[in-house]
What does this fold into?
Amino acid sequence: MKIEKIVKPFYDGLAEHKLLGRKCKECGAIEYPPRYACNTCGYHETEWVELSGKGVLHSIILPSTLNADPWNASLGDYAYGLVELEEGPMFNCTVFGINKRSAKKLRPLLPLPVHPLFADKDGVTVVFFEIDKVEGIK
It folds into this structure.
C-alpha cells in the first residue's frame, strides 16, 4: 500500500504502536485522527504530538448484517463505539472484546476505560481499541 507523505508520520507511529495526533499551535486543541487545520478554532498551523492512547468508551453499537466486517470478526468479538481520548479528541472506532451478551452488561457501566490494540492489516498497522478488564464480565 502506498502511503502519502503527508500522513506517513501517522502510519510510522502506528507501526511503532504509538498514536499520533495534530496539536493546534493557536489554541492547543488536539485532532485525532490527525487533520492539518484545527477543527476547534480553524487555525492552520498544527504539529505532530504523541497521544497516550488512554481513553473512555461512551457508546456500544453491535455490528449488523449491513455493517459487519469479516476481517474484524476474524480477530474476535467486536462492536463500534465513540471513544474519547484523555487528550480530548472523540471519534468512532472499532472496539474489541464486546459481544451481544457482554454489551448488555457493559452499557449500564459506560463510560468505560479503553486502550489501543494494534494489528497488521494488508501490510499496514492499524489501531482499534479494547475495553480494559471489567470484573465479572466476559
Q: What stands out?
A: The chain has a mean pLDDT of 92. The domain at 52-138 is CATH 2.40.50 (OB fold (Dihydrolipoamide Acetyltransferase, E2P)).
